[in-house]
Specification:
By secondary structure, this protein is mostly helical. 81% of the residues lie in helices and 0% in strands. The longest helix has 36 residues. The chain starts with a helix and ends in a 5-residue tail after the last helix.
């Protein structure tokens, strides 16, 4: 999976793909090169999920700051 393809995925899609890769890696059925490629894809997917979660958190923080008058 290319970085450009990963950037197009929603959080749910990226998480689903990541879960599939983890299952494949845990099964031990992949050869070395396929395992390395799956791991690389997993890193990209994990970073995508993290970025989307951080973006959502920032949006929620902005909304909660507005709703309480901006004071903490």
């Amino acid at each position: 999976m290319t970085p450009e393809q990963v950037k197009q995925l929603s959080f749910e899609q990226a998480l689903e793909q990541l879960q599939l890769l983890v299952t494949q890696l845990e099964s031990g059925s992949l050869e070395l090169e396929a395992s390395v490629a799956a791991f690389e894809d997993g890193v990209l997917l994990s970073r995508r999920c993290e970025a989307l979660l951080e973006g959502a958190e920032q949006r929620l923080n902005i909304l909660t700051d507005r709703s309480d008058g901006g004071s903490e």
